[in-house]
Design a protein that fits this description.
The chain is mostly helical. The chain is 86% helix and 0% strand. It has 14 helices and no strands. It has helices at 2-11, 18-34, 38-55, 58-74, 78-95, 98-114, 118-135, 138-154, 158-175, 178-194, 198-215, 218-234, 238-254, 258-270.
Length: 271
């Protein structure tokens, strides 16, 4: 995807292409962030922001700031991320960018969830859900439902979580969104672990590994390796658990995913 966006970028020739250039740079940057290369991602999005500011394009500026906030979030810099999300949301409202307004609400929900304020997270998620559904953005709805299911699981509302995950998976199938579907399955495995259903959780994890490895979905693989380590530990397979958790921890550090690294370190301590 990055190669194709870069090819498109090189084909731009005139000053009138600046809007497209900013959008392409933003998307390249987001792909780098998804791959865990935060420095490269931030470089691209900073360039996109500069182009947008020179054009006076407030909607593009808001979109760039939202992605820069994501890079802070991945590094655990929650105060900086939240401030940028709020700024991006205000600019998006002024620019009439309803999609970005809904996206920012979802991102603010993620921040609240990371801080342990699950009721506040759900309030943000519901506002975001209403926005996405009004726009008919099923792909975004599927990703958001995954977050909502995780929040329900944190509250031990198991039936609500399971129903939400099922709805998310159904939308993923309609949209052909394999990556989000895998993350939903990862979170379903986490819910089974939390309920002590290790055998069923292992079945889910093995299926996810089989599907994620050919896609080289590092984010999904890192999460599922953590779950595999916990399952192996709880079933008494300590050496297997140690290896899974080691791989998960190293992968989390490479991606600068501090939350996941902390979660894995906690599981290593239990081991």
């Amino acid at each position: 995807a990055r190669r194709r966006y870069e090819s498109a970028l090189y084909l731009l020739r005139s000053d009138t292409d600046a809007e497209e250039a900013s959008m392409i740079l933003r998307r390249i940057g987001r792909l780098y962030l998804d791959d865990g290369d935060l420095e490269a991602g931030l470089d691209c999005v900073t360039a996109a922001l500069a182009v947008a500011e020179l054009r006076g394009d407030s909607a593009a500026v808001a979109n760039a700031k939202n992605i820069i906030a994501i890079s802070h979030w991945q590094r655990g810099q929650l105060d900086q991320a939240e401030a940028l999300y709020v700024e991006a949301g205000s600019m998006a409202q002024l620019a009439g960018d309803a999609r970005l307004v809904a996206m920012v609400e979802q991102n603010l929900g993620v921040i609240a969830s990371m801080r342990g304020d699950v009721p506040r997270a759900l309030r943000h998620y519901r506002t975001s859900l209403a926005g996405y559904r009004a726009l008919g953005l099923d792909h975004y709805v599927a990703n958001l439902l995954n977050d909502i299911g995780l929040a329900y699981a944190d509250l031990t509302r198991w039936d609500d979580a399971e129903n939400t995950y099922r709805e998310a998976l159904a939308l993923c199938e309609v949209c052909g969104d394999a990556s989000t579907a895998l993350m939903v399955e990862v979170n379903r495995a986490a819910m089974r672990i939390a309920r002590g259903d290790y055998v069923d959780a292992q079945v889910v994890c093995e299926r996810v590994l089989q599907e994620a490895r050919p896609l080289n979905d590092v984010r999904v693989l890192s999460e599922v390796y953590k779950h595999c380590g916990v399952i192996a530990r709880e079933l008494g397979r300590t050496e297997e658990a140690e290896e899974y958790l080691r791989v998960a921890f190293e992968s989390a550090l490479r991606r600068e995913d501090l939350l996941l690294a902390a979660e894995v370190a906690r599981e290593q301590a239990e081991l």
